[in-house]
Every structure is written in C-alpha cells, then in structure tokens.
Design brief:
By secondary structure, the protein is of the alpha+beta class. The protein is built from 14 helices and 12 strands. The protein has 2 domains: about 200 residues, no CATH class; about 170 residues, no CATH class. Strand 8 and strand 9 form a beta hairpin. The longest helix has about 40 residues. The two termini are about 30 Å apart. The mean pLDDT is about 90.
C-alpha cells in the first residue's frame, strides 16, 4: 500500500459511522447535503438565467437584424449597389433595405402609437423572422392593394397581435395610418394620413413589439414618407452573431465615415449588461449557501480531530509525518465536498431535464413572454460551479487539518 493509499484508507475509515460517532456522522451528512443544495441551486439559477437570456436574444434577433446601417442626416439613395457590395463582405448572410417611421394607427375611436417598418417583401424574410411570426394572413399580401369593401383598394399592413386587440381589428379590417409630419397649410401643419387594410397579424412573443410595431411594403413606405428614391437604412444578417465586430469594422471601411454601422450587441448593450450583472449577483449570493455548508465541514473535521487524538498520536509514534496526518483530514473534507458536488450536479441536471421536457413550472403568458421556464445548462457553468464548490471545501479543511498535524503524541497519550 503506497503512501497516498494508506492516507485515503484512513480518511475513508474515519468517515464510517460508529455508535459513539453518530453525531459526527450526522454533521457529515448535513455538510454533504448543504454542499449538494448549494451546487444544485447554483446550477439551476445559472441555467434559468442562461435560458432566459438565450430566449430573449432569440426573440429580439428574430424581430431585429444583426447589424443596422444608416446614413447620417439623410436616407440612402443608391441602396441597391450598396447591398450588392455588402453581400460580398465576409460573414454577411443576407441584407435588405428598410424605412422606419413613427406613426399613429387609428381605428374608429381607438388610437395607438406605432413604429412603422417599410420592408422589402422579397429580401426581408432572409434577414428577420417576419414570415415565421405571422399567425394570420400572409406577407405576400403586402405586394398589391387589397379591397375590403369590394370597390376601394388599399395597401396592406401587418400589425402585432396585441395591437390588433388594442385597436379592436383583425385581418381584413381597415386602419388609418397617421404621420406626425404632413403638409403645411394656412391653418398650420396638417398630419398626413393614409388608409391601409390589415393583411396579417404577427406574434413575436415580445409584448413591446406586438403592441408597437407594424409592417408595410417598402414601396408603400416610400410613398407615405415621401422618399421615392431613398431608403432609411439597410439591415444585415450575419452567419455568426458572436463575431459581428469584424463585420462592422469591414463595413465601416467599405462605406466610409458618413455611415453609421451598429451591431445587435451595441444596440441592446444596456439590456444584456443588466442581465449579465443579475446573473453575476445571483451567483455570488448562492455561493453563500456553499460557504455555509463549508462551515459544517470545518465543524465536522474539528470534532473528528478531537475524537481521534489517540489514533493521531499512535500514527505519529509509528512514524507518520505531520504532512500525512494533515492530508488524511484534508482528504476527508474533500470527500465530503466532492460527494456533495456530485450529488448537486446530478440533482441540478436532473431537475433541469424534467423541467425542459415536462414543463413542471409553467408561466402565465399574460405576464411573461415565454409559456414555460427554460433551463439551459452549459458545460462551462457545470465546470465552474464544481470547481468553486470543491475549492471552498478544500479551504474549509485547512484549519482542522493543520490542528491535527500539530498535535503532539506525548500530550495526546498522557492521560491514556
């Protein structure tokens, strides 16, 4: 039996319960359970935060593009040639022109502010998930004027599900789009307005988008905002959303300083920074559970050292070094911490699996934008949580192990 084997053998033997050590064994069990609960809570909370962030990012990027290009102080006139050049940039998947205008939608006595998006029907679905989000009607209906009274034809508009409920309208209903900028008359500024017909209803899953966004065709938007030869900007979709910085730099070099180029990280940096801060704060708070369990490990080892004074003295008298005695009790603490960590990891992953597959916890769609709580656990979180738990358990063994190593055999055996 080599040196490490006998140290491990003694450490395991000391952890076995005897009749007079029932209390110590109970504290040991509590320590294992404490570490397991801490690890499980950390895994689940980090998984919930990761799942929430991923779902939020998926919905935001499904409605918005990965990169937005605008021209300072004016629209983009030669957008077709610009799009052709942009599609040649490495990592660019697709691009489409757009026009955005803040308007009011009116139906009867109901009015609601809306961000109106004029989109190219042929290329927009390659950049944003507009087709996937439509639950009623069809995007292609925006191509041609639609008749809702068998005589007059009006251009189509697609609105959000929540907005349709606010205005009390559905597919086939007329709606008036009012622009705050209009014509100047002797009586002052007269807002511009135009009749549209609801050609479809979309549901993005984000309440802010479903109540405050609407889509019309790019040509109708150009006529409405009086930009017949221009577009407001260009949306881009990239192959890898986590490597947009290089694409942004290449586009800035291509287009020059008169163009503003922003990626999704820059446009939503406040939101993601807040989510990251919240995840970090929750991690620090839940680490305290493992630290509390570590105090139980300290108490267990201190009681074990006091109970094993005679055995420690005999081992030292037989030639065992202080470093070996120290390692015996450090191994005890590490076994407790490792056992709790493994149980916590298995428990956390099992609960995450049950939630993701059987939806034990459901959320109200009236309050949350997702129907079920999603727990996404990645390998990095598992490794980091396990490392932290074992490290805290190791630190908890240092003081009791040193006390055992410093025990004098003659002092321990004096009253034996």
């Amino acid at each position: 039996m080599n040196k490490f084997s006998y140290e491990l053998f003694i450490a395991l033997r000391y952890l076995r319960a005897k009749r007079k050590q029932v209390f110590i064994s109970l504290i040991t069990l509590i320590s294992i359970i404490g570490v397991a609960i801490g690890v499980m809570a950390l895994i689940l909370v980090l998984g919930v935060m990761t799942g929430f962030t991923d779902d939020l990012r998926e919905k935001i990027l499904g409605t918005n593009s990965h990169i937005v290009i605008n021209k300072y102080f004016s629209g983009i006139k030669d957008h077709e040639s610009k799009i052709a050049d942009l599609n040649k940039v490495q990592n660019v998947y697709a691009s489409t022109p757009f026009i955005i205008s803040t308007v009011m939608l009116s139906s009867g006595s109901r009015v609601s502010p809306v961000i109106l998006h004029g989109v190219d029907i042929s290329t927009a679905p390659d950049v944003i998930d507009i087709k996937k989000s439509i639950i009623e009607g069809d995007l292609m209906l925006l191509q041609n004027p639609i008749s809702f009274d068998n005589s007059t034809k009006h251009p189509g508009i697609i609105i959000g599900k929540e907005l349709s409920e606010i205005l009390g309208i559905g597919t086939g209903s007329p709606v008036t789009v009012i622009s705050p900028t209009g014509l100047i008359s002797p009586a002052g500024m007269i807002p511009g307005w135009k009749k549209f017909m609801v050609a479809g209803i979309f549901e993005s899953g984000m309440y802010e988008y479903d109540t405050g966004m609407a889509y019309i065709s790019l040509s109708d938007a150009q006529k409405f905002v009086k930009m017949p030869e221009e577009v407001g900007g260009i949306w881009l979709k990239v192959n890898d959303i986590y490597r947009t910085e290089k694409v942004v730099a290449d586009i800035r070099n291509l287009l020059g300083p008169e163009y503003q180029v922003r990626d999704w990280k820059e446009m939503h940096k406040n939101l993601y920074a807040a989510l990251k801060l919240e995840k970090t704060a929750m991690f620090i708070i839940l680490i305290l559970i493992i630290i509390v369990a570590a105090f139980s490990i300290v108490a267990t080892l201190i009681m074990m050292v006091n109970d094993k004074n005679r055995e420690i003295a005999i081992l030292k008298s037989m030639g065992a070094k202080s470093s070996s005695i120290m390692r015996i009790f450090m191994l005890q603490g590490l076994i407790i911490g490792l056992s709790g960590t493994v149980i916590g990891l298995v428990g956390g992953c099992s609960l995450a699996f049950l939630q993701n597959n059987f939806h034990i916890i459901s959320l109200s769609k009236d309050v949350y934008y997702i129907p079920n709580l999603t727990i996404k656990i990645n390998s990095w979180d598992l490794f980091f949580v396990a490392f932290i738990a074992i490290l805290i358990s190791f630190i908890a063994t240092l003081y009791p192990s040193r006390q055992a190593a410093n025990l004098e055999p003659a002092e321990a055996l004096r009253y034996e």
